Amino acid sequence: MKKGSDVKRYVIIGNGVAAVGCVEGIRSVDPEGAITIVSSERWHAYCRPLISYYLEGRAAIPRMSYRGEDFYRVNHCELLLGVRAVKLDASARTVALDDGSVLSYDTVCLATGSSPFVPPMTGLETVANKHSFMTLDDAIKLEQSVDTSSRVLIVGAGLIGLKCAEGLCERVASITVCDLAPRVLSSVLDQECAERMQALLESHGMRFFLGDSVAQFRGNCAIMHGGAQVEFDALVLAVGVRANIGLAREIGAKCGRAIQVDAHMSTSVSGVYAAGDCTESYDASSGTIKVMALMPNAYQQGFCAGLNMSGHSHEYLEGIPMNAIGFWGLHALTAGTRYSEEEGGQTYVERDAEHIKKLYIKDGKLTGMILLGEVERAGIYCQMIRSGRALDSVDFDAMQIRPSLSALSSSERGHILGELV
Question: Between residues 407 and 144, which one has the greater pLDDT?
Answer without folding.
Answer: 144
